[in-house]
């Protein structure tokens, strides 16, 4: 148990602690306990802390310098001169680290020598490409300046690894937004402007999809997160209908029979739909945003019932199954999200069941589509919509007229809490765990409010496509206040978390998944995150939401920092990574039913961002097995992804799962690992990625993956 020196007679503790940047917080004596525990002075910490409090407890407020001096004095007087010197040296090193991290020249030097921590931070950015290099250069400067812009105690909390201030290469230096649901309907209906071109409403589905691609490219360059198209089959149907009507008119001079006329027009329209959707797939995969990467794009579909809407659904799936190019490679983008709905496509007697069968086939061959459960998503988030990017969900929201609005809304950013560190610091003491947790909540709140306030400093002219031409729904005039699009809880801002498995392990051991007390404790942690977000939403009028962070580099970063500080702790830091959000321990191999049963309680409190994955063997010959999981999961989880081996070697013809080795993933039959002659696709960042083209995955991550097959369970990008 923690040392409650605060209740010792004749020992007064200060009420407030003034940090070096002038910010004020409640004084927390447990931090002194942690300092002495890390020095190996557990047996003497009661006496040392008592002496420190005698010195600093004379006033209600004490500043950091006073505490620093008091710690050194107490150590010296107790005969621990060497420990005092160590403490002073650690402080000096921390100050040197701060200066280094806020020095643009230092970071640019690291980038120049291709420091892996910098050049491979994002699995979908190829650092060999010029425009990616330019983005990395700008990001290196942006990070150092951004750290100086934010309150110092928040910046230092980020550098220490207490929290992670996401997308520091873009924000706060730039007042950019994160991810969004683009209001394509508004833009395609009313027209828009990109660059010098005034674009009118399209008159065909081919033009509509071409315009969508241009909108996506421009939006992706004006924000730093992913973008999504909601209900794209229903969105594009009116434009395909114009194709049909045109074909009817054109054929009237040649076909007298009404039935044959409509049959001909329908056939031509189906071909138009296929060509348009194929063009969209190719355009998205050949686009590069200003960030030096293909735009992180998600298409949601599956609820349309007209023949045109069904045909759009069918085309999306058929094109993905076919693959890209002569070699029929798996398309990385857009991410496909198919909706299951009771009485529409769930059972064989439902009218769209045939589309569901095609979706199952597509998932066995291309991993996408992921699945949204219509009724569960409405229950969890308050309305139905696809995620923004890979997993960030808007909450149900109505405008001043009582109309439900989803498209045209956005997320303002993410700050993630390092939960395993809190568990390590509390050393089995749950009371201390909650003390530290509550203090870190205060830091997260300040960081998120700072993010939101910074985004409000944008002007419409900074990103015309977003603010002036409809991507964010409302069209603002130059100089208007952009906060009207964020306040009244129209936008979300996200409190992320990582490492519930490690927290459970710290208190209950590594096999706690079936321990109800342990499970309830970890659920309570997410519930408390939610409670904080509700309180902050009431205070600031943004929609603060709990976000199950996809943590590609963060799984490493937090663990590396904690290993340096606390050493190798079995089943926590010794794995060399932390587990994403609420996911089951990736070293174990539960059935899909066991995994989903374990995970289903968490999204109730983390409705601002979540996804479940299940790991399968090769399912191409057994699609009914995947369908059985989808059906079973319908009333249990809202958002479900498929991890199944879909690698293909063009040299020997192997299809299945490539073998992870120290030099990267390679064909198990012929050893081929040349990205030009094989197609190796894994889930990274909630999206798919090709690890053969990413040196980070080529090396250390491939080695880890050889032990932890499902390491890439929900890793990466913050969308």
Automatic annotation (TrEMBL):
The Gene Ontology CC terms held by the record are: anaerobic ribonucleoside-triphosphate reductase complex
Q: Which CDD domains match?
A: RNR_III (cd01675)
Q: Is rRNA-binding found in the keyword set? A: no
PROSITE patterns tied to this protein:
ATP_CONE (PS51161), GLY_RADICAL_1 (PS00850), GLY_RADICAL_2 (PS51149)
Tell me where in this chain the Glycine radical domain is found.
Answer: 588-713
Q: Which residues carry this modification: Glycine radical?
A: 686
Q: Does the keyword Nucleotide-binding apply?
A: yes
Matching Pfam families: NRDD
| ATP-cone domain span | 15-99
Molecular function GO terms recorded: ATP binding; ribonucleoside-diphosphate reductase activity, thioredoxin disulfide as acceptor; ribonucleoside-triphosphate reductase (thioredoxin) activity
Q: Which domain of life is it from?
A: Bacteria
Q: Which GO terms describe its biological process?
A: 2'-deoxyribonucleotide biosynthetic process; DNA replication
Q: Keywords of this protein's UniProt record, alphabetized?
A: ATP-binding, Nucleotide-binding, Organic radical
Q: Which protein, by its recorded name, is this? A: Anaerobic ribonucleoside triphosphate reductase
